[in-house]
Write a structure and sequence with these properties.
With 625 residues, this protein is α/β, with parallel strands linked by helices. The chain contains 24 helices and 19 strands. The chain has a seven-stranded antiparallel β-sheet with strand order 4-8-9-10-5-6-7, with helices on one face. The longest helix has 16 residues, at 241-256. It is globular. The structure holds zinc ion.
Length: 625
């Protein structure tokens, strides 16, 4: 294979910790006293059998340092103090020193690779010059490669050349040896190029799916649903094996990346696949444009859409069996200038089963919310813009209340989360089944708990309130900016103040912000004025906390991993009821809420900044209205 690491093949038998430390001067501190703090006269450093290290001994060496840390300090790439700090950080965060040092940005991936290569006399390979297609496939399990951040470069007899950024990781060699029954040989590669290769390898169309999903992977297509068109000539297209594998691979990758949506986008000269992860779209791959029609046909067949119809948008669903788990997808097609754009939404019902603690409620907010939903009747409203996690919050509550003794019904447009034991209805405007019609039917079905996807008109509001007043727990959402405005919104819809005051128990407003990656986040410095302007007060600066910034590492996207909610949880107390009855303004309600210790969304976000859970930027952009 091209660029195979044969030039200076690694020496056999370098498999123990002793042998992985630098040769050359073994006991660095012994040499150090000869003017090592004088930058102009560094001591000579030569290793008898290796080319000289290009850099100089520039900083005091700490005997406590070992492995990579010592090599970097030794090579003058990292001050000893910084190395010590990073060693400590890595230990605290339970990550490797290599990940810590790269995340800190204090040593570039190229410098790290060069330093390790000369210190350990291991070959260095530029991954950028390698053709990934020609690397051995499926020799090392894909999961193992991702977990240990290594890649199989080439194989010769029973020797396997393994590219990695941290050759001091002895565990990985043992694991690979065991898994492959081959003799692994380290080749140093640059950390960033390796990460890029690993993430694109996992999205590459050429790679076979088997290594990731095993044989447990199957679309659930009911045979009786096969439409006549499937027997037409287009059948050849939809059964095209590379396209089938590519789609399966994209879906599995999306699930593994915790994506919420997949976008398949045709343009005039290229085709693009993007995933939405933690609320942000990112490009995953650009498959050949020639596959666009085959791919859209394939997706349409398994989601039971009309594959001959390419001029109008269509909506469908599909189900994927993934081992014992099955995952639902909602599919939507849109005719664009250069072909059909297809968006696949992953309907992950596990999100509702994570429990309320995964959503990011502060203790008092959680207690107030639970107190309201455990009441026998009344109305609980969740408010916020699209994509603020309202559905997950409501379903988490429904999941808590979902007991054999209660009848729960939901009407949604459409249902995004499936929970066994809950009667879910999709609105169907064409058939006249809108929110209010469904609500009326629910009331004839002996309900205990009713969830209405959204209250957007007076008729729905009136029926929902009537249900809440007559012994049912009603949950719903509204599109408003914050909790106090929800009450005035209902008034503006024409709901009588008395009806609001006597039915609504609690309103929560929410936003989603990205969660800082625990692995790589770093303390941030902000001018005091900026923090004050954001809403902190002088008393907050007691030195007990510091804000953090996003950095970025192998475990996250741009320094963030996952999301959490900011909440304004407003219980409707007697004092607030009085303001509603007097038709007070949202401002009056907000003022009273503040007196009662209800945090607004911004304040709630600042609590998360104090806790080092998210960044000030995230909170400001989520709460800037
Ligand atoms: Zn990270």
């Amino acid at each position: 294979m091209p660029g195979a690491p044969t030039g200076h093949a690694p020496v056999h038998g370098r498999r123990t910790r002793e042998k992985l430390t630098p040769r050359g001067p073994p006991a660095l501190p012994v040499r150090a006293p000869h003017g090592w703090h004088n930058r102009r006269t560094p001591p000579p450093f030569r290793r008898p059998t290796q080319p000289p290290v290009e850099t100089t001994l520039a900083e005091p060496l700490q005997s406590a340092l070992s492995g990579v840390a010592r090599m970097l300090v030794h090579a003058g790439k990292l001050p000893a103090k910084a190395a010590e700090d990073l060693v400590k950080q890595a230990r605290e965060k339970k990550i490797s020193f290599v990940n810590a040092v790269i995340a800190s940005g204090q040593v570039s991936p190229a410098d790290l690779a060069h330093t390790l290569s000369s210190a350990l006399a291991l070959p260095l390979l530029d991954l950028g010059a390698m053709d990934p297609q020609r690397m051995p496939q499926n020799v090392i399990d894909a999961k193992l490669m991702q977990q240990y951040q290594v890649v199989a470069l080439s194989r010769r007899g029973n020797r396997l050349f393994v590219g990695g950024a941290d050759p001091t990781d002895l565990e990985v060699i043992e694991r690979i040896k065991f898994a492959t029954q081959l003799q692994p040989e380290w080749v140093i590669v640059e950390h960033d190029k390796l990460s890029k290769l690993l993430s694109s390898a996992s999205a590459s169309a050429a790679e076979t799916l088997e290594s990731i999903a095993g044989g447990d992977f199957d679309f659930d297509i009911a045979e009786e649903d096969a439409t006549p068109q499937q027997e037409s000539a287009e059948l050849a297209d939809v059964e095209d094996a590379p396209v089938v594998r590519f789609l399966q691979k994209m879906l599995v990758d999306a699930i593994n990346l915790r994506a919420s949506d997949l976008h398949f986008e045709p343009y005039e000269f290229h085709y693009r696949v993007r995933f939405r992860v933690d609320g942000e779209l990112r490009e995953i791959t650009q498959p050949p444009i020639a596959i666009k029609d085959k791919l859209s046909s394939r997706i349409k067949v398994i989601s039971r859409l009309d594959i001959a119809e390419r001029r109008v948008p269509q909506d469908g669903r599909m189900k994927l069996k993934f081992g014992a788990k099955s995952i639902d997808f909602r599919v939507s097609t849109l005719p664009t200038l250069f072909g059909e754009k297809i968006v696949i939404r992953i309907l992950d019902s596990s999100s509702a089963k994570l429990g309320i603690d995964a959503l990011g409620y502060e203790k008092i907010e959680k207690e107030r919310l639970l107190a309201a939903i455990y009441r026998p009747y009344g109305m609980v409203l969740v408010t916020g813009p699209t994509g603020s996690g309202k559905t997950v919050s409501l379903y988490t509550c429904l999941n808590i209340l979902n007991q054999p003794g209660v009848n729960i019904s939901t009407v949604e447009d459409p249902a995004e989360i499936n929970l066994p034991g809950i009667n879910q209805v999709n609105v169907n405007d064409k058939a006249g089944l809108n929110f209010s019609a469904a609500l009326k039917s629910f009331l004839r079905q002996d309900p205990d708990i009713i969830m209405v996807g959204e209250i957007r008109d007076l008729e729905t509001a009136d029926i929902a309130i009537k249900a809440a007043q007559t012994g049912h727990m009603v949950m719903s959402t509204l599109h408003t900016n914050d909790a106090p405005k929800t009450l005035t919104r209902l008034l503006n819809m024409g709901v009588a103040p008395f009806n609001i005051a006597s039915s609504v128990l609690l309103i929560t407003a929410q936003r989603l912000v990205r969660r800082l990656c625990e692995n790589c986040k770093q303390p941030a410095e902000y001018p005091r004025e900026a923090l004050l302007k954001a809403g902190f007060v002088e008393e907050d600066f007691d030195g007990s906390w510091k804000p953090y910034r996003a950095v970025g590492c192998n475990n996250c996207t741009n320094g963030y991993r996952g999301r959490l909610g900011l909440y304004q949880v407003l219980p409707i107390t007697e004092a607030i009821q009085r303001i509603i009855l007097a038709e007070g303004t949202a401002m009056d309600i907000a003022e009273q809420a503040k007196k009662e210790g209800v945090r607004d969304l911004r304040q709630s976000g600042l609590v998360k900044v104090r806790g080092g859970i998210t960044t000030l930027e995230e909170v400001l952009s989520a709460t800037n209205e």
